[in-house]
Amino acid sequence: MNEILRTIDRAANDDNIPFCVFKPSGIALGKIFTKIQAGQKLTEKEEGIHQRNIERFEKICQAAHDQNVRVLIDAEESWLQDPIDEVVYEMMEKYNKETAIIYNTYQMYRADMFENLKKAHKRASEKGYFIGAKLVRGAYMEKEAERAEEMGYPNPIQISKERTDIDYNSALEYCVENLDNFYVFNGTHNQYSNYFLAYMMDKHGIQPSDQRVHFAQLYGMSDNISFNLADKGYNVAKYVPYGPVKAVMPYLFRRAEENTAVAGQSSREFSLIKEEIQRRKEERKKK
After folding, report:
1. How far apart are CA 98 and CA 117, in angstroms?
2. For 46, which of 42, 90, 121, 208 could close a Cys bridge (C-beta 3.0–4.6 Å)?
């Protein structure tokens, strides 16, 4: 929690850091949320732990609001996400009255997520706050399938990559069409989804620099997408995971293994880098 508060302090004085981010399981005990979602009663000790979990959420969100720094709250596995969502929406109701400070994450590889996004929008409209929506495809596909099979419930993941792509792009369209209520963060390396959002913005007369829309890719990945969007005036953020090697490397391995768009674009990115190096050499010769 203290490290996240330090990132908020740092971002408050630097226009080049448009967002801070934290993962709920980094500041709270995940098994407590799991137990709550399963409808199990918490022990007295667990109630105390849960209260401290909420206090840490509150402290981060309050600091972000006070310093006008937007905060992305990452998603977790489906079996503990519901009570996390509830906490995040309570924070939105409190701190997203004038603009979106708090952003929830929607993993569109879940078959129910597009409907969850619509329900979140309805709730925000009824209670009078802006909804910050960070859209991603998802990060826990293998774990979700294994647990569903082990415990005998339907796999919550989409039946195909194509279905995930359809829901992802439909969610982008939905956010743009309801931009009076939404602030959208397009967290993807998928080339078409980035193009599609830019197209939808143009279709609805939304300026590239509109602060309600941000594009984002991981630092060191899909720089060709990030650069070209930024070059055309769109808001682009590079997502920078940092910390001890033993903590950061598993995160990066998951991104590389589970994001098929990145895997498919790696050789293309390398080719583009070589082409750019050659282009710059030729430019120097001309001078």
Report:
1. 20
2. 42
Q: Which residue type does 258 have?
A: E
Residues 6+ apart with CB under 8 A from 71: 8, 19, 20, 21, 22, 60, 61, 64, 101, 102, 103
Distances 111 to 59, 165, 221, 254 between C-alpha atoms, Å: 33, 11, 27, 20
Tell me: pLDDT of 275 over 60.
Answer: yes
> What is the token pair recorded at 265?
């674009």
Q: In 87-192, which ranges are E strands?
A: 102-107, 131-136, 182-187
Q: Under a CB-based contact definition with an 8 Å cutoff, are residues 54 and 32 in contact?
A: no
- Partners of 20 in the beta sheet? 71
DSSP state of 178: T
- Give Rg (Cα) of the chain: 20
Our CA angle for 105, 93, 52, nearest 5°, is 75
Domains of the chain (ranges; CATH) run: 2-244 (3.20.20.220)
Model's pTM, two decimal places? 0.91
What tokens appear for 282 in the block? 């030729």
The CA distance from 224 to 227, in Å, is 5
Query: Residue 218: helix, strand or coil by DSSP?
Result: strand
pLDDT digits (tens, 9 = 90+) for 170-187: 999 999 999 999 999 999
